[in-house]
Amino acid sequence: MTPAARAQATLDLLEILFPDAGSAPAGPPADRALADYLRGRRYIGSKDRRAVAEQLYGVLRAHARLGWWMERAAAAPGNRLRLIAWLLLAGHESVAAVRTLFDGSSYGPEPLDAAEVAAAKRLAGETLDHPDQPLDVRHEVPAWLLPQLRAALGADLPRELSALAGEAPVDLRVNTLKAERAAVQAALAEEGIASAVGRLSPWALRIDGRRPVAATRAFRDGLVEVQDEGSQLVAWLVGARPGERVCDLCAGAGGKTLALAATMRNKGQIFACDTLKGRLDRSAARLKRAGAFNVARRVLKSETDPWIKRHKAGFDRVLVDAPCSGAGAWRRNPDAKWRLTPEGLDRLTALQGRLLSSSARLVKPGGRLVYATCSLLPAENLAQVERFLAARPDFRLVPLAEAWPEELPGKPPSAGETLLLRPASHGTDGFFVAVLQRRLEAAGAHDATGEAQGQVGGSAETPPLESA
Ligand SMILES: C[S@@+](CC[C@H](N)C(=O)[O-])C[C@H]1O[C@@H](n2cnc3c(N)ncnc32)[C@H](O)[C@@H]1O
Question: What is the ipTM of this complex?
Answer without folding.
Answer: 0.99
